[in-house]
Amino acid sequence: MRAVTAGRRRSVAVLVAALAAIATAFATPAQAEAPKAASFDVLQLNLCNGGFAHCYSAGRSVDSAIAAIRQRRPDVVTLNEVCAPDITRLTHETGYAGEFTPIGSKVTGAPQPCSEGRGDYGVAVLAHPDQGSLVDGLVEKQFAAQDGGKEARVLLCAPFSQFAACTGQLSMDGNVAAQQCVELAQAAAGLGAATLLGGDLNLAEGGNPDVRACVPQGWYSKGDGTMQHVFATGAFGFERTENLPIEGSDHPGFLVELAR
Predict the structure, then answer these.
(1) Which Pfam family is one of those matched by this entry (predicted)?
(2) Is the pTM of this model over 0.70?
(3) By Cβ atoms counted within 10 A, which residue in 73, 112, 119, 126 is the most buried?
(4) What are the boundaries of each domain within the chain?
């Protein structure tokens, strides 16, 4: 057998390299890696700033809320037990867009005022500036079911460019709260796939009534271990929760980290 010369070895190597290049050029490219889901964080706050409860701290909870929002930069914030000027201050100092709805007074038929003439008392939703501005479709109304107290509790659903969010603080009467929860969840479910709900629902997971009974089909719920909850559609993947200290309130800030 004749020995293979160096020239022939070089020719074979060049041919192999050329064939490999051709095969690479015509090969079906591997499937592109799916883009990583973007984070989407929800912060539920009960600031106890109406001035009626023992937890009222003359605005310290608002200071703490502003600090938490600046630090964590959630995509949406749902707020309960706040005064209208609190929302003006929160939007001004964080750059978030906001919508406020006053709770009604059964005594006067007008909005329920906060103590010491600090404006209307109610609930609100804030949206990170990257999530767009408020669009048509705002829902704000008093619940059909009300307890025997002086307040006419309300629900608020605010649609923004990138998502919609609803909130409400429900009755301390569990049976009334259960009815209000169903109404709030139904309002949220009517706003489309990219919708969330956060609030102090005054219902516990595993309680009687159980907060899970009002979670819409195709949604899931996460709670802070007591009465604050966030509901989300399947368009949002769940990652984790965290309770944040809010000075001046007897409720933690309930942060729910999602992805979409």
Answers:
(1) Exo_endo_phos
(2) yes
(3) 126
(4) 39-259
